[in-house]
Specification:
Elements (H helix, E strand, L loop, with lengths): L6 E7 L3 E7 L5 E7 L2 H10 L4 E6 L6 H9 L3 E5 L1 H10 L7 H14 L10 H32 L5 H26 L2
Helix pairs in contact: 5-6
Length: about 190
């Protein structure tokens, strides 16, 4: 349970915008939608008081800039694994699934648990994570292209130009994958 003086702000975030919800100390409920960019971040910071704790899901990469912006301004932030929020909403028997309702549920979750403060990733860790993701995509694409070539070969009728194009793509993917692995390991 959080200290009584804190106002928990639930945020449901997506690529273009984020919804927020909180109940002020006077009982007034506030909700809205802001753009997921610097202007939206500034608007949220102006709207909240210094005793707020922002709670949001780790929604892909979309939460990261808002979380960093709030952290840099000294606002307390917690980033929760989406499955935890999903299970919480299921336990609450919530059937309404809108961004606004999700923000309210995230705030309710934040009011019931002991929140852990979030901190941005160290710069090197973030780079490693991004290079790892790129390499993972390249390996996946390499596997799919190799399997496609094998499937075409299994027909016994593979045009030589198509075969050459696939082999060239496979060679390029192998080079790019090796280069990304090298960059990733040298960080």
């Amino acid at each position: 349970m959080q200290e009584a003086k804190l106002t928990i702000v639930g945020v449901d975030i997506s690529k273009a915008y984020f919804d927020f919800y909180f109940t002020a100390h006077d009982g007034k409920k506030t909700k809205g939608r802001l753009s997921n960019d610097k202007e939206g971040f500034k608007a949220l910071i102006k709207m909240i008081s210094s005793d707020c704790w922002i709670v949001m899901e780790a929604s892909g990469p979309y939460y990261y800039q808002l979380s960093c912006s709030l952290y840099e301004k000294g606002v307390k932030v917690s980033v929760i694994i989406p499955l935890v929020i999903k299970r919480f909403m299921q336990m609450q028997l919530k059937r309404v699934k809108t961004d606004s309702a999700d923000a309210e549920s995230i705030a309710a979750y934040g009011e019931l648990v002991e929140l852990k403060p979030w901190q941005p990733l160290k710069e090197n860790y973030l780079k490693i994570k991004q290079w790892y993701t790129i390499r993972k995509q390249l390996v996946k694409h390499l596997l799919a292209t190799t399997q496609q070539k094998e499937a075409f070969l299994a027909t016994g009728k593979l045009d030589s130009k198509i075969r050459a194009a696939l082999e060239e793509e496979i060679m390029q993917l192998k080079k790019r994958s090796a280069a990304s692995k090298s960059r990733w390991r040298n960080l």
